[in-house]
Amino acid sequence: MFDKILNWKLLPGSHEFPGSDGGTCINEAAVVAAGFEYRAVQNAKDCPLCFSRPIAAYAIGLNDSMPDDLRQELLIPFVTRLAGTADTTAKEIERASYIAIQTVRRILPILLRAIGLHEHADWCAKVGKLDAAVVADVAAAAAARCDNPAAAAVAAAATSAAAGYAAATAAAARYAAAAVADAARREILLIAAAILDEAIRLGNQAEPIETVLVASRMKDIKQRALERA
Asked: Which residues make Cβ contacts (< 8 Å) with residue 118, sequence separation at least 6?
């Protein structure tokens, strides 16, 4: 219902200005919904200061990696939830760490089991903190099966997660792109969207915005797009 009210099309990548049907990434749509002047968003630093940086970075990674139908289904509900999430440095570090840990615990095991690394999947599922040694072992085991595309993706993603939040924020979506079956891909992206929701809830959250006001702002920017055409 919210999707139909907004009538906005989420797309991968950065956009200098939306098309007449919307046509922006999740963060650009969130900028409009919050009442800011439109801006292209190539990375989290392009967002207004009231946007949490790790949350914005993770949202960009999910947005750019999801297929069109799932991007629309899973990310449109976050259009009104990104502005107002900025918090203290400690809280942002907590959020970033949470994203990385939950990715290792809940997403990596799905692909590890798909390529037969059941013991390594069990290790990941039990990780209580971002244990770089465990993740490095997982990456090495996956890399040893380099003839399997999913294994290569696991190795790259695990290495990113071990490196810290800057690389790990978008890792979950990259795992999904290498999943061996559509069902696994959908499962992974549902989990990734849940992790985004949970990470937002760890700190400051957006003030509620009336749906009518959001729809009006989105309609106005699309009208301006028509006038520019």
From this structure: 112
